[in-house]
Amino acid sequence: MGVTNLWQILEPVRQPVNLSSLKGKTLAVDLSLWVCEAQTVKKMAGVVTKPHLRYGSSNCLSQQFGS
């Protein structure tokens, strides 16, 4: 899911920013994927042991071998 190699594509234009320089500014972060992932882990609670590890390992396998 997402743009393949996005971080590698953006690397040439990356500009590190000191957090203090953002004081008084509005910062938007897209958390929708993280929220969906957290819901998936919550649904596994009580069904599998250590759902966070199962989610993480399945995510890594998905990245390595595809869905």
Uncertain residue ranges: none
Q: Give the termini separation.
A: 10 Å
The residue fraction in helices comes out at: 40-55%
Q: Mean of the pLDDT scores?
A: 74
Total helical elements:
3
What string gives the helices and strands in order?
HHH
**Count of distinct strands:** 0
Q: Give the strand content.
A: under 5%
The gross shape turns out to be flat
Organism: Accipiter nisus (Eurasian sparrowhawk)
GO molecular function: 5'-flap endonuclease activity; four-way junction DNA binding
Protein name: XPG N-terminal domain-containing protein
Domain XPG N-terminal: 1-43
Could you explain the architecture of this structure?
With 67 residues, this protein is mostly helical. Helices cover 49% and strands 0% of the residues. The chain has helices spanning 6-10, 32-44, 51-65. The longest helix has 15 residues, at 51-65. The mean pLDDT is 74. This is XPG N-terminal domain-containing protein. It comes from Accipiter nisus (Eurasian sparrowhawk). Residues 1-43 form the XPG N-terminal domain. GO terms for molecular function: 5'-flap endonuclease activity; four-way junction DNA binding. It holds the Pfam family XPG_N.
